[in-house]
Amino acid sequence: MNNTELTPSMATRPTVMLPKPPTSRIAFTLVEMLIAMAVTLLLMAALAKGFAFIGANVRDSRVQVALSDEARDVTLRLRDELQRCTVSLSPNLTAPDQSGYFLYYEGPLTDATSTLFRLTTDANGDQAAIDSRYGDSDDYLAFTAVAKGDDWFTGVVPRFVLDQKTAELAGASYTPGADALDPIVIRSKYAEIVYFASPEYLPASLPATPAYVDVDGDTDLGSGGAIQNGFPDRIKLHRRVLLIRPDLNLNSGSIQSRLLGGVEFLLADDWPTASTTTNQTIRTAANAGDGWLYGMAGVHQQCDLSLRRVLDSDGEPTQAIAANSLADLTLPHNRFAHVRIPGTVLGVGGTERSMPVLALGASLTIFEAQSVAPVVDMAPPLTPSAGPIVTPAGLSGFIRPEFVLGNDLSHLDSTADLWGIERRGDDVLVNNVLAFDLRVYDQQSASITSSTTGLVVSPSDVGYREVLREVHTRRSGSMPEPIENIRVVRGGYVDLGYAVLAGGSIRGWQARRLNRLSTADDPFVDATITPLDRFLVTPFSGLASFAAGSTGRNCFPPSFYRSGKIVVDASDDIRLFQPAFDTYTTAYERDGFQQTDGSVSGAGTRWISGVPTSGFDEGADGLEQNLVFGFDNLNERETLPPYIATPDSIRVTIRLENPSNRQVHQASVVHRASR
After folding, report:
1. Dihedral sign, CA of 545, 551, 554, 560?
2. Is the pLDDT of residue 631 over 60?
3. CB 242 within 8 A of CB 306
4. Does residue 407 have a pLDDT over 70?
5. What is the chain's percent helix, strand, coil content, to nearest 5?
6. pLDDT above 50: residue 377
7. HSE-CB for 657 with a 13 A CA cutoff
8. If you write DSSP's letter for every residue of 347-370 in order, what string do you get?
9. 259 phi and psi, to 5 degrees?
C-alpha cells in the first residue's frame, strides 16, 4: 500500500500543455511580395528619373559647349579678319580714296520683328511671342583685307586661267587641254571677304521663283495647329574669300572666257537680259530676263577670284570679266554680288540705271502678312494707307541663291567639271543661325525711361514707338512738360536706319496697324511732331528731318539719296531701299559718266546711259557751280557715301540654335573705327 497521500492542492492543479515549437517559414507571403515589388519599382523609377535628369543635363551641357565653340570660332575669325581690313570706317569724301572698301548693309529685319509681327493667342486670350528667338538675319558684311605675314589667303581657279596667262607671258598661243578645268589652288596677300546669311530653299522653287523652307510646325497657341511663321526654318552663315589678283588679267585687261564642254566658263550673262544660246550658261528654266540680277553668279561659282564686269564706252556692263585690284574695289559696281538695275525694271525710264546695289531677293513673307485674325496675329508692317516709309518687296531680302556656292540652278552645270553643284557647302561657315546682326554705334540715339512702366527703352526694343508717343503726349498740349523731365541716355548700338526699317520698332512716324486685332490705322502723333526731332534725327537713324507731311523725297539724309541706295519715283513710291554704311568712292566724280539725282522723275541718284555732253562730274572740275560753298564742294557732287559720319564702331552679333533641344547661344564682336 502506498502511504503517500495527495494534498488537496495537488489534486486540483491543472495540467499545463506546452505549445508546439513554431514551424519554420521558407518564403514571403503574396502581400509581402507585392509590397516589395512596389517599393522596388518606385526605387527604379526614382533612379531612372535621376539618371534621365543627369543625362539631360549632360546633353544640354554638351550642346551648350558645342554652340559656344561654334560661336567662338565665328567671332574669332571675324575679329581677326576685321582687324586686317585695308580701310578705316571713314567714308571717302575727298580724293584719293582708301585702298579697298568696307560695306555693311542693313536688311529690314530686326530683333523686334518676330515680336512685333508674330504673336499668338492662347485659350485664355493671352498673347505670347513664341518666335522671339528669331533675330536679325538679313544683314550683309563685306570688306577688303590684307594677310598677316606669310598667312596668305587661298582659293581655287580653273587651270586655264593660269595657263593662258603663262602662255601670254611666254609669247605663245594657248590651246585648252583636257585638264583646263582642274581646280588649282592659288594664294593672294589681299582678298575681298564677304559674310552673309542665306536660308534653305524649297527645291521645287529654284531657279525661277526662289522660296525658302517655312514648314517648321510652330504651334499656334489658339488653334493648336501647325502654321508657317514667315521666317526661314534653317539659315546658314556663308563666307566667301575672293582673291585679289589683277596680275591674272591678260594684256587686254580682262580674263579670256573659254567654251569647254558646251559651257562658256568665266563669261557673264548678257546685260540686262540673258539668253539660252550656245555661248551662254543660262538655263531655260531660269528667268532669262533677269540676266542683270544674277548674270555674274555663274562666274562666281567657277572661280575664287574677285571679279567684275568690264564696262563699254557708254558705261554699260558687258559679258567680259576682269580680276579686281584694291583700287577697282573702291567702286561699288565692281564688288561681289552687286548689280545695276535697268531703268525699265526700276520704273524710272529706259536710259536710267540704278547705282550699284546688292543682288537681293524678295522680302521675307513675314512682311507680306496682312492677317488681323485672332488666331494668326500678324501685324502688317506695310503701311495700310499713309506714309511711304516701307521696304519694297523686291531687292530687300536675302542675297540671291545663285550667289551661294552650289546653289546656282539658273546656270548649266557640266558633269565633266568640278564647279557648280560640286562646290555646295564650301562657303558654309555655320548652320542653324537665328541671327547675323550688324549694328552701328550712334552717339545720339536716345534710350528713354517710360514714365508709365519705369523701364528704359532703347530704339531696338519693341516698345520704343509707344514710348515716343508717350513723350509726344507729355511734350504737347496747353501745358507741355519740360524736356528736362524726360530721362534720356544718349548713345548705343542701333540698326542702321532704325527709324524707318519695315521690321524695326518704329517703322517711321506714319500711321500703322499696331493693334493686331483691328483693321484701323493707328496714328503715331498728330501734326505737332516737332518735339520728337531730338529723338529721331540722329546720325544713323535714317531721318534727316521730317514733319507731319514729309514724304520719301524729303526726309532721308541727302547723302542717302546721292548714293543711289534709295530711289523714289515721281509718285513718291520707293522703288529701291538698301540702307548701308559704305566707304564708297569719289571716282564717280571723275569717270566721264553722268550720275544724277532724278529731280524730275523722283529722287535718288541714277546712272544715265551713254556719254554725257554737259552737266556731269561737276564735283571735281575745279569750278564754282553754285556760287555759295566754294568750288568742288559736297553739294556739287553727283554721288556721296550713304552716310557721311564716321561711326565709333560696328558690332557683329551671331545667334545660333541647336534644333534638338532649342538651346540658343549668342556672341558678338566689335570692330572699331581706328585700325
Report:
1. positive
2. no
3. yes
4. yes
5. 25, 25, 55
6. no
7. 19
8. TS-TTEEEPPEE-B-PPPGGGG--
9. -85, 105
Residue 284 vs residues 207, 277, 281, 644: alpha-carbon distances, Å: 10, 10, 10, 44
**Count of other CB atoms within 10 angstroms of residue 349:** 17
Cell of 198: 542665306
Which residues, in sequence order, are CB contacts of 89 under 8 Å at separation 6+? Answer: 102, 581, 583, 646, 647, 649, 650, 671, 672, 673
H or E element at residue 72: helix 30-83
482 alpha-carbon distance from chain centroid: 40
Q: Nearest 10 degrees: CA dihedral of 139, 142, 143, 145? A: 120
Average pLDDT over residues 616-637: 62
> What secondary structure does DSSP assign to 584-605, as a single string?
--SGGGSSSSEEEE-TTTEESE
DSSP labels, 92-136? --SSSPPSS-EEEE--S--TTHHHHH-BEE-TTS-EE-TTTT---
List the end-to-end C-alpha distance of the chain, in Å, as a whole number: 140
Region label for 50, one of left (φ > 0), alpha (ψ between -120 and 50) or beta (otherwise): alpha
What's the CA gap between 285 and 279, in Å, rounded?
Answer: 17
Tens digit of pLDDT for each residue in 603-624? 899 998 887 877 677 766 555 5
Q: How far is CA 602 from CA 219, 562, 605, in A?
A: 45, 12, 9
Helices (H), 107-224: 113-117, 159-169
Please answer whether residues 177 and 202 qualify as being in contact, where contact means their C-beta atoms are separated by less than 8 angstroms: no
Beta carbons within 10 angstroms of residue 474's beta carbon:
16
Contact call for residues 377 and 126 (beta carbons, < 8 A):
no
Average the pLDDT over 253-267 and give the result.
89
**What SS3 state is found at 88?**
coil
Angle in degrees, CA 323, 326, 330, rounded to 5: 105
- 314: cell is 557708254
Neighbours of 290 (CB within 10 A): 22
- Helix (H) / strand (E) containing 670: strand 663-672
Residue 138 to residue 123: CA distance in whole angstroms: 34
- How far apart CA 507 and CA 502 sit, in angstroms, is 5
Q: Where are the alpha helices (DSSP H) in 275-364?
A: 291-294, 297-302, 343-346
How many whole angstroms separate alpha carbon 549 and alpha carbon 543?
14
Peptide bond just before 96 cis, omega within 30 deg: yes
Q: How far is CA 288 from CA 272, 274, 292, 294, in A?
A: 10, 5, 9, 10
Task: Tell me the pTM.
Answer: 0.88
Beta-carbon-side half-sphere exposure of residue 73 (alpha carbons within 13 Å) = 11
Pair 300, 324: CB distance under 8 Å: no
CA atoms of 574 and 497, how far apart (whole Å):
15
Query: Does an H or E element contain 318, and which?
Result: strand 317-323
3-state DSSP assignment of residue 653 = strand
Which H or E run contains 501?
A: none
The angle at the Cα of 427, spanning 422 to 432, to the nearest 5 degrees, equals 110
Closest CA to 367 of 377, 378, 359: 378
Phi, psi (deg, nearest 5) at residue 22: -65, 145
CB 462 within 8 A of CB 517: no
